[in-house]
Structure formats: structure tokens, C-alpha cells
């Protein structure tokens, strides 16, 4: 599964993207965030305020309780400031 | 039906308007919104816009589709730039056409409120003192502006 | 502070926008409304616009002054044409500039609602069968659109 | 005092403007309309529905009860259809 990061989430994690092998028991975006936070302090820093970081599955905005089964690409990013 | 482009290059609003309206007798109104990079009282040398390729197009297409369902539009063009943009340069164009003015006004305003909150773009400041400034924070008022359409 | 022109000639929206925004770092948003002559399903060959010279300029200046009092505008241009105007040609341009988008959207919409009801212009239809049609009747919905600003 | 007419008010009266010497006792726009309607059937026709015809004094919209003393130019016209 491919993970992509943008803006300060990308800067804090220190990479633009990575491919991960998902461990058992990770069913939702919230599960994934909790698991990523155990992978190192860069992830802890990026997700220190979980409520702020937004997620998208395959280019569609999703909430933390969205199931991730079948996702090809999951993105994490700060609130958007385009326009 | 809408035209959506994500690009680094500047855009030509007059050419986009002509492309949308030229040779047509059914369009009675166009509203063109252009968003510009401000210098924030001389503090900024540029805004750097990062975006999520693929999702930016897809999300703007979804918002445009919503607008076309809500209003009887005769044309809708959205162009959003990314990369380094200097003060005074345009960042975004929303161009809505309709038979009567209210639909064009409301659709353009709706598009901008949703773009601000849901299109995957992030702005970072570059300062006139040569340093790279902070990521621009999302504004609560932009959230509130979107809520009024629900 | 606003630019107001009543003219028979077509206008160049791009040049007007450049004149309003060129070289400025304080403008974050422009809204350009353009009203076009429709062909009404092929029925019309033209609209003939009669106006009251002197009062047209004065009344639009009063409306523009009201808009500038209500919103923090950084520029306001209104151009209204008179004479014979063919389907597809522009009739009116309202261009509002501000730091943030809401002021530009609201001011342009306000200007149009008031122009429709209070600017001394009258439209008469010219038909594709060669005859001169009726004077266009004022619409109750335009009256209602103005009321919402009070 | 100069009177000017526009659109179908102009067409019905059959002239674009005229200069009149105002008789005694004409104080308001409504008085003026009532007096004009005695001048001929073209005026009667133009003002057949008085509530529809609008007036301006010296380029400013006014109501029927507006006083006309001191006016240089009074205009009569249908509801506007610009924009």
C-alpha cells in the first residue's frame, strides 16, 4: 500500500511517499495513524494532533473511521489552503 | 462539461472567457473570479503552492459537478496554479456562465468556498528577507463560508 | 475612486482588469461580472439600449459609492454600453477588487442588482424577422434581488 | 422647466423633451403628472398607469410626492431594464 504525504506532514515525516506492508488488524484510517505513530518520532511529530491531519483514499477525502481495505494510495496532509 | 486545469503557468482570463462564450447566444451572464497572490504589506516575496497531482483535478471536478447540479450553468472553467507565484500574479480562476446572473454569481462563489476547503493545495510563504516562511494556516472563516451552502 | 463609463463601443475586460490590478500587491480577489445580449432562442437580432445621458453616470456613481461604503473595495469599474448590441456581445461589466473574496463577490452582485433597477437604461428588442419588437419589461425578480441588500 | 422623456413614455408623448412654463399650484411630481394629462391624449396615454411611470429631478430618482420647486430638468420614464 502506498502512502503519500504533503506540506508540513511531508516535512515532518521527511519523505514524500513510501510503500508499506500493512500489519494485521489495521482496518481504518485511525488504526493506520495509530500504527504509524509507533514507527518513529517523525511520525509521532507529524500526527501529534491527529484531529488536524486530513486523509484521502485514492484521491477522495475520508474521515478517520473510513475502512482502508482495498486502498491503493492513502494520503495524509494538513488542512488545505488553496484557492 | 466543465474545463479544469491544474498548471504552473499563468493563465489568460480573456482567452478562457472567449473560449467559453464565443459564438454563443444563450449565455446572458459570466462571473469570473480571480484570486491573486498578495504581498501582505511587503512581507511576502512569493507564495509557493504545493498540490496533490491527480487528486487536485479529481476533487475540483467533483466540486464542479456539484455546482452544475445545483445551478443551470452554461459553462464552468476552473484553473488553479501551483509552484512559485509572485505578488500580483493570479493563482486561481473560476469562470461561470449562465443565462441569468444569479446562477453565475452563486456557482462561482460556491466553487471558491469549496476550493478553499477541499482542493488539495497548500500555500507556503516566501519572505522578502530571503527566508522561507510558514505554511499558511487554514482559516475558520473559510470553513464557515463553506457551511452556508449545506 | 471608481471608474464609470457609459459608451456605445465594446469594452476590453482584460485591459480593464489590468488597469485595476496591475502593479498592485494588495489585491487578493477580483470578481468580474459581464452581462451579454442573448438571442432568446434565435428570436432576437439585437437589443437596442436607450439611456439617459448624465443621469446614467450620476446614478451608477451613487450606487458605486454605496458599494464602496459597504465593502472594503480596492477598486471598482463599471462600464455600461448603449445603442444596438448583437447577441453574444457584452452589455455591462462590473469589476470589483478587494483583499478577500467575499467583499468582491458581494459588491459585484450588489452593483448588478442596483444597476438593473436604478440605472436609467431601457432595452428594446429587435427581432430576427426584421421588425422592432417590444420594450423589455422590468422583472419582479430584479426588484426582489435588490430588496435583499436593504 | 425642461421635461425629458425616455423609452415608451417618449414614444407615447411623441417627443424627447420640451420646455414648459409651469402654471400656479403645481407643487409635486404628482401634481405635474395630473396637469400634463390635461394637455392631450398623448400625455393621457403615457401616464395612463401613473404608478408605473418613474420620475427623476435633476438626475436623481424621486417619488410622486417630491416637490419640484427649483428643478431644472424633470424626467419621466418606464421602470428601468439596464444591466
From TrEMBL, chains A, D:
<protein>
    <submittedName>
        <fullName>Molybdopterin synthase sulfur carrier subunit</fullName>
    </submittedName>
</protein>
<dbReference type="Pfam" id="PF02597">
    <property type="entry name" value="ThiS"/>
</dbReference>
<dbReference type="InterPro" id="IPR012675">
    <property type="entry name" value="Beta-grasp_dom_sf"/>
</dbReference>
<dbReference type="InterPro" id="IPR016155">
    <property type="entry name" value="Mopterin_synth/thiamin_S_b"/>
</dbReference>
<dbReference type="InterPro" id="IPR003749">
    <property type="entry name" value="ThiS/MoaD-like"/>
</dbReference>
From TrEMBL, chains B, C:
<comment type="pathway">
    <text>Cofactor biosynthesis; molybdopterin biosynthesis.</text>
</comment>
<protein>
    <recommendedName>
        <fullName>Molybdopterin synthase catalytic subunit</fullName>
        <ecNumber>2.8.1.12</ecNumber>
    </recommendedName>
</protein>
<dbReference type="GO" id="GO:0030366">
    <property type="term" value="F:molybdopterin synthase activity"/>
</dbReference>
<comment type="subunit">
    <text>Heterotetramer of 2 MoaD subunits and 2 MoaE subunits. Also stable as homodimer. The enzyme changes between these two forms during catalysis.</text>
</comment>
<dbReference type="GO" id="GO:0006777">
    <property type="term" value="P:Mo-molybdopterin cofactor biosynthetic process"/>
</dbReference>
<comment type="function">
    <text>Converts molybdopterin precursor Z into molybdopterin. This requires the incorporation of two sulfur atoms into precursor Z to generate a dithiolene group. The sulfur is provided by MoaD.</text>
</comment>
<dbReference type="InterPro" id="IPR036563">
    <property type="entry name" value="MoaE_sf"/>
</dbReference>
<comment type="similarity">
    <text>Belongs to the MoaE family.</text>
</comment>
<dbReference type="InterPro" id="IPR003448">
    <property type="entry name" value="Mopterin_biosynth_MoaE"/>
</dbReference>
<keyword id="KW-0501">Molybdenum cofactor biosynthesis</keyword>
<dbReference type="Pfam" id="PF02391">
    <property type="entry name" value="MoaE"/>
</dbReference>
Amino acid at each position: 500500500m502506498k502512502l503519500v504525504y504533503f506540506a508540513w506532514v511531508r516535512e515532518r515525516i521527511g519523505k514524500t511517499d513510501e510503500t508499506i506492508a500493512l500489519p494485521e488488524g489495521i482496518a481504518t484510517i485511525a488504526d493506520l495513524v495509530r500504527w504509524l505513530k509507533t514507527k518513529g518520532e517523525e511520525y509521532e511529530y507529524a500526527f501529534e494532533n491527529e484531529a488536524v491531519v486530513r486523509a484521502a483514499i485514492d484521491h477522495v477525502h475520508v474521515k478517520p473511521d473510513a475502512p482502508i481495505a482495498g486502498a491503493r494510495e492513502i494520503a495524509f496532509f494538513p488542512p488545505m489552503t488553496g484557492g | 462539461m466543465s474545463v479544469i486545469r491544474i498548471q504552473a503557468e499563468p493563465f489568460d482570463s480573456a482567452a478562457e472567457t472567449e473560449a467559453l462564450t464565443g459564438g454563443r447566444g444563450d449565455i446572458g451572464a459570466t462571473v469570473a473570479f480571480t484570486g491573486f497572490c498578495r504581498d501582505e504589506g511587503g512581507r511576502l516575496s512569493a507564495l509557493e503552492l504545493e498540490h496533490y497531482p491527480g487528486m487536485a483535478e479529481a476533487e475540483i471536478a467533483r466540486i464542479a459537478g456539484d455546482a452544475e447540479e445545483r445551478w443551470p450553468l452554461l459553462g464552468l472553467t476552473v484553473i488553479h496554479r501551483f509552484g512559485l507565484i509572485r505578488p500580483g500574479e493570479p493563482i486561481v480562476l473560476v469562470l461561470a456562465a449562465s443565462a441569468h446572473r444569479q446562477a453565475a454569481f452563486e456557482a462561482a462563489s460556491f466553487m471558491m468556498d469549496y476550493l478553499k476547503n477541499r482542493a488539495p493545495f497548500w500555500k507556503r510563504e516566501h519572505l522578502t528577507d530571503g527566508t522561507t516562511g510558514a505554511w499558511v494556516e487554514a482559516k475558520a472563516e473559510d470553513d464557515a463560508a463553506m457551511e452556508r451552502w449545506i
